[in-house]
Structures are given as structure tokens and as C-alpha cells.
Design goal:
Largest sheet: none
Radius of gyration: 19 Å
Number of helices: 6
Distance between the termini: 47 Å
Helix content: 55-70%
Number of strands: 0
Shape: elongated
Strand content: under 5%
């Protein structure tokens, strides 16, 4: 049976790098904390942006202005879109000459209060990014040694 293909997330690499950076910072502050506790602090740490594409956020926020989100929406995704919606509506009220699309794009590209990821998901992404960095560093070292 053919497996369904997953959509690609255009900011995957940026989000993974930021997660690893915050993880390393939090790890430096921890005193023998469990990894799960450190990752929990990471997912609740402020993020440089909302990790959703501007276009997707605009489509969801536009539909939210007409009807509520589906009950099938994951609680963390729901929380993220409600925060984007709240901030977008506030920005549109402050700047009435801006379109909803412009307000949403502005909000998505500014600091988010947290990563809006489950701990297990964040842990997996951090592990993947650490492994990717290890492989990248090994290749750099091999090139340097062979030069």
C-alpha cells in the first residue's frame, strides 16, 4: 500500500536550527535536569516567529473571521492560530488602511510567545538537527584533513 506523502514545511530547517539553539542555551542553565524537562522549557520559550507559512496562516485566519476553527484542529495549533488571529485583529484595528493579509503576514513574521510544539515532536526535531550538524561537521573535517 502506498504511503501518503507529507507536505513539506518551508521553514523546517530554520525552526530546527532555532530549536537546537534554544535547547543548547537551556541545557547550559540546567543543573542535571532530565532532557524532557529541558525540552519542555524549550517549547515554552519565545520563538523568533510563528512557525507557519504566511500563506497558510492567512487562509486560516481569513476563515476564522467567518467561522470558528474545526474541532479536529490539534490544541497547540488551535492555540497558535487563535494567538495569530488575536494579534492580527488588534493590528488591523490599529492600522485600518492595512489589509487582513498584510496584518497576518506582519504578525507571523514577528516574535511568537512559544514554539507551539508537543514535547515529543520538539525532542525528535532537536535530535534530527543534532545528527545533521554532526554529519555536516564530520564532512567539513574530512575535507579539511584531505586538503
Amino acid at each position: 500500500m502506498k504511503r501518503a506523502s507529507r507536505a513539506t514545511f518551508e521553514y523546517h530547517a530554520d525552526r530546527s536550527r532555532e530549536l537546537l539553539k534554544v535547547f543548547n542555551e537551556e541545557l547550559g542553565f540546567s543543573d542535571n535536569d532530565r532532557v524532557e524537562d529541558v525540552v519542555q522549557r524549550v517549547v515554552n520559550h519565545p520563538s523568533s516567529r510563528f512557525w507557519v507559512s504566511e500563506e497558510r496562516a492567512w487562509r486560516i485566519i481569513s476563515s476564522m473571521s467567518r467561522r470558528p476553527l474545526s474541532s479536529k484542529c490539534h490544541p497547540l495549533r488551535r492555540e497558535m492560530f487563535e494567538e495569530i488571529f488575536r494579534r492580527s485583529m488588534h493590528l488591523c484595528a490599529m492600522r485600518p488602511n492595512w489589509s487582513l493579509k498584510r496584518c497576518v503576514y506582519h504578525v507571523v513574521n514577528h516574535e511568537a510567545p512559544k514554539f507551539y510544539l508537543a514535547v515529543a515532536t520538539a525532542h525528535a526535531l532537536i535530535c534530527q538537527e543534532r545528527n545533521r550538524c554532526r554529519v555536516e561537521n564530520m564532512l567539513k573535517l574530512r575535507r579539511w584533513l584531505s586538503a
